Amino acid sequence: MSEAGGQPRQVYQRLARWLETVPPDLLASRRRQADLLFRRIGITFAVYGDKDATERLIPFDLVPRLISRTEWARLEIGLIQRVKALNMFLADLYGAREIIKAGVVPSDLIYRNPYFRPEMVGLKVPHDVYVHIAGIDIVRIDDKDFYVLEDNARTPSGVSYMLENREVMMRLFPELFGSHRVAPVENYPDILLNSLRSVAPPTAGSDPTVVLLTPGMFNSAYYEHSFLADKLGVELVEGRDLFVDNDVVFMRTTEGPKRVDVIYRRLDDDFLDPLAFRPDSALGVPGLMNAYRAGSVTLANAVGTGVADDKATYTYMPEIIRFYLGEEAILKNVPTYRCREPEALSYVLDHLDELVVKEVNGSGGYGMLVGPHATRDQLATFAAKLKHDPANFIAQPTLALSTCPTADATGIGPRHVDLRPFVLTGAKGTRVVPGGLTRVAMKEGSLVVNSSQGGGTKDTWVVDDGEAGR
């Protein structure tokens, strides 16, 4: 919020004045109201393996994060560039594989990747769009430039919290919201639905049927699945609600079978079709991959996109962008050591207590080591893991992540944040919803923002450059 001298940045000046005048008891009261609203709405997050709380509220912070339109414009261009390259990369991997032939990306990085799907080789997807919905995690370092921390190209979550956070802020602080010209996020469902309908198979005609496929109510993100289906105006279905006949997908309805053209799936590849992947899956639809290969149904995101959001693949994104687009990456990667490379591995082992080490296929804050906060035993354990399977890890320096003002029971204080903008791609191009989801580390000094690790969220406002300071 503030510059080095302590003065609020221009975009934050009005919010800073508001924070100076708002009574602490008002914030406490509004925090309780927010919790009550979220409980009534039913926004919970299931925590697997937590014996004390199978479901909990994600902490919500009342102080919005502000980004100027000028800054956002550059972010938007960089995000569109990145997702365009990701789609070209996936089309190439499952097609001619020119990037491998050119030696830009090592072949074993792809072929040994658990998310690479040989079943997709030679399969043409509509409009060459593999990643219809992307969640690109962005961090700001030293209060200066934005960097990409990771790409989420499988089934990115969190958009329901972006939408609900905005609604709650508008209810609780209408005067503060009204004093800023905030770019809307409420049209996200319309943009998403139009994007999904645009990639329907040609056989769908002018009125394609879209459904949202969920693993069911025991999934950690089930609230989001039901929320989005409702906002999109489409049916929320489980695998048992669908069947395949003559390579065409149908939905069971009270009026008889209804053809399905587009499936927005929130189900991992492994569970989609027991005839193609895991035979023990009771969550998927037998024969779905045959229908997909026949081109009678579109899956969003496409099968096999996980190879593009692998953390080892992430390290090659500058080269991937350069190879396909002939451009330099607008949004830089965080400096990263590939432990598969002997020189990098040696450095990481020698500086383990200074680095953050992550599994290349890990997510949710699991399977990682934060060196400066690790015990001697944890460091020794991770060193052994690195020596045993170095290709399974990458390492990054401990970042000086930017902080935003955050309200808790003790008052207002700085907490580290990241940002997940949502990027939607369809037949007519790519759009970025202005704002995205800001995740915040609720513990002082913590760098872990994941909800599964105790992190929270806050509303993100993209506002006009000059108006916030008036």
From TrEMBL:
Transmembrane segments: none
Highest taxon in the source lineage: Bacteria
SUPFAM superfamilies noted in UniProt: Glutathione synthetase ATP-binding domain-like
InterPro entries named among the record's database cross-references: ATP-dep_Glu-Cys_Ligase-2 (IPR051680), CP_ATPgrasp_2 (IPR025841), UCP005522 (IPR016450)
Chain intervals for the UniProt region annotation (Disordered): 450-470
Pfam families the record matches: CP_ATPgrasp_2 (PF14403)
Gene3D superfamilies listed in its UniProt record: 3.30.1490.270, 3.40.50.11290
Domain (Circularly permuted ATP-grasp type): residue spans on this chain: 64-441
Protein's UniProt name: Circularly permuted type 2 ATP-grasp protein
Species of origin: Lichenifustis flavocetrariae
Lineage: Bacteria, Pseudomonadati, Pseudomonadota, Alphaproteobacteria, Hyphomicrobiales
